Amino acid sequence: EVGTEVAREIGAEHVVLTNFPGAVPGTKTLADMFRYNAYQLFNATARWRAYGGLVRQLEDELSRLKSQNTLLLGLTVGLAVLAVAEALLLIAWRRRA
Fold it and tell me: Are the C-beta atoms of residues 42 and 15 closer than 8 Å to each other?
């Protein structure tokens, strides 16, 4: 429980290994225990690599969306300023007419 929480906080993969044959079902012998531990480590490494790739993809997508958001905000502000300027010109033109 503590190991899971620590791993979650630091962004690590939590792996439970055993050092007693028979402590986990299917690990009756020392060789079975070593296979179990190796399997746990290999799976954790694969998950960690997969999550790392996913995180990189999400960071790239976030960066792209931030850039797009900045561009759209700039266009909106520019068009708002243009609309106000046009309104002021129309008001001035109507007063002269």
Answer: no
Q: What is the mean pLDDT of the chain?
A: 93
Q: Is the pTM of this model over 0.70?
A: no
With beta carbons less than 8 A apart as the criterion, state whether 27 and 38 touch: no
13 Cβ neighbours under 8 A, 6+ residues apart: 7, 44, 45, 47, 48, 51
CA–chain centroid gap for 54, Å, is 7
pLDDT grade for 17, boundaries at 50, 70 and 90: very high
Count the alpha carbons within 13 Å of 64 in the hemisphere toward its beta carbon.
6
Q: Are 33 and 19 in contact (CB under 8 A)?
A: yes
